[in-house]
Design a protein that fits this description.
The complex is a heterodimer of chains A (239) and B (215). Chain A is mostly helical and 239 residues long. Chain A contains 9 helices and no strands. The longest helix of chain A has 31 residues. The chains are: A mainly alpha (239), B alpha/beta (215). Bound molecules: adenosine-5'-triphosphate (ATP) and magnesium ion (MG).
């Protein structure tokens, strides 16, 4: 299992520019999060569902993510129910799931570094973006190193118990991880210096907006406007 | 023309003298091996040449004495250093970005960067890995990428620390071929008997801090 894999590599969502996806996500998430009308929130539902269909990814995985979030949300709905405000509970539930689905469809279909690049293009502070990126890049490496050390411990008869020996082993592994990370960081920095690094990360393959990206942005915006107009015009068919 | 020279180079690490009065000399386009037992200071020697370790004595690049960070900055971009462990060297999101890192830093034009990247992808047979994230590469693939990533700098010299580690037969032969044909000065640090036999190069032996010429 790889936790850093983008979803839906066959869908057009994967090929879209991360910047467009981020903007669309922010627009919808902002509107849905702030909305208190059932009609409006439901109006956005077809968009979320359509994205989910476009994703054509591993539905099992997507539902596992939704399920994990909903397991928590259920308590919110229950407490809302207890306090006699079931419609508020349901609204919250609906809003959260919509935002989650749109996030999965738009965010998790990008490679993480494309998202970092989009951050950079949106003029987030360069240092912050580099920090994000390097953290992301090395979490995996550090995690691998941790697993390697655990394997090596298991290969030599280590069994986790509630004993002093177990705690000591974990402490050694943790200490090793810290020291290793420190030295690794030091050498990586040297490697960067060896290749002419002067403090600024330059990106080779700049992403260009394609016709697909403009089309997606336009369609999303159209949907957004339509839902807004429809809900403003006061057609309250629900509740 | 001389490329790199050291004069009575001494290095202390952890209170121990790892290198003692090393006098080393490398001509332009000269190719040499540095061999020696584990812990004898081979990697330390390479790191000292790149300006990462405090030293006594002198390091000269093309006759110019290396005095400070500025000098080493330019030396580093002219002598490509391939680390002993590729995981220490690769940090970009994809193979392509990794190869483009150095030439972009050197401020080359986009066209030139592209040419350099493409030719390195071709030369090391890693074109199919272009978009692969670094963390997904196998050990041997990382090795190839780490060599390719300094070649795109178009350096005048190369220092490779144990470059055959983790390479299979096919890639080993490709590396031998590359080392034989590359028109640059090369220092290869290795224990690999096969590599030493495959290339009839000058050999230096490092032991107990002393560097001696073997053949
Ligand atoms: N960062 C460091 N701090 C202190 N001592 C170090 C450091 N790095 C290496 N040493 C010491 O310097 C000596 C030479 O190490 P070096 O890594 O240069 O050996 P090497 O010849 O490259 O060995 P190998 O063949 O195992 O790669 C060793 O005794 C080592 O313990
Ligand atoms: Mg070494």
């Amino acid at each position: 299992m790889n936790y850093f894999e983008a979803l839906g590599k066959e869908s057009f969502l994967y090929r879209l520019d991360a910047r467009v996806k981020l903007v669309v996500l922010l627009l919808f998430a902002w509107k849905i999060a702030l909305s208190s009308s059932f009609g409006e929130v439901l109006g956005f539902a077809p968009f979320a569902v359509a994205l989910l269909f476009c994703l054509r990814g591993d539905m099992g995985q997507i539902f596992r993510i939704l399920f994990a979030a909903d397991a928590f949300l259920v308590f919110l709905v229950i407490s809302a129910f207890i306090y006699g405000n079931i419609s508020l509970g349901l609204l919250l539930f609906l809003k959260s799931n919509e935002i989650l689905i749109i996030s999965i469809a738009l965010l998790m279909t990008s490679e993480p570094f494309q998202i970092f690049r989009a951050f950079r293009d949106f003029k987030l502070p360069a240092k912050l973006v580099q920090l994000f990126f390097l953290t992301y890049r090395y979490i995996y490496t550090i995690y691998e190193e941790y697993r390697l050390m655990m394997k090596s411990a298991y290969c030599r008869g280590f069994k986790p118990k509630t004993s002093l020996n177990t705690y000591r082993t974990y402490a050694y592994i943790l200490a090793n991880l810290l020291v290793k990370s420190y030295f690794r960081a030091d050498r990586i920095y040297k490697a960067m210096l060896c290749r002419g690094f002067k403090g600024e990360f330059l990106v080779y393959r700049e992403s260009k907006m394609k016709r697909e990206d403009y089309a997606f942005a336009a369609v999303s915006f159209l949907v957004f406007t339509m839902v807004e107009l429809w809900s403003l015009s006061g057609q309250k068919i629900f509740l | 023309m001389e490329l790199i020279r050291t004069e009575n180079l001494s290095v202390k690490r952890g209170g121990r003298e790892v290198l003692k009065n090393v006098n080393f000399f490398l001509q332009e386009r000269e190719k040499v091996f540095i061999i020696g037992p584990n812990g004898s200071g081979k990697t330390t020697f390479a790191e000292t040449l790149m300006g990462f370790v405090e030293f006594e004595g002198g390091i000269f690049f093309k006759g110019k004495r290396m005095e400070g960070e500025e000098d080493f900055y330019s030396l580093r971009t002219k002598v490509g250093y391939v680390f002993q462990n590729p995981d220490d060297q690769l940090f970009s999101p994809t193979v392509e970005e990794e190869l483009a890192f150095a030439p972009m830093n050197l401020g080359y034009s986009r066209g030139k960067v592209k040419t350099l990247v493409e030719s390195a992808l071709e030369k090391f047979g890693i074109r199919h890995l272009r978009d692969t994230p670094i963390y997904k590469l196998s050990g041997g693939q990382k090795r190839l990428v780490s060599i390719a990533a300094v070649m795109t700098m178009n350096p005048e010299g190369l220092i490779l620390d144990e470059p055959t580690n983790g390479l299979d037969e096919e890639n080993f032969l490709m590396l031998v071929d590359f080392l034989r044909s590359v028109e640059k000065a090369v220092i290869v640090i290795t224990h690999d008997k096969n590599l030493i036999d495959a290339l009839d190069w000058k050999k230096y032996y490092l032991k107990d801090g002393y560097l001696t010429f073997v053949k």
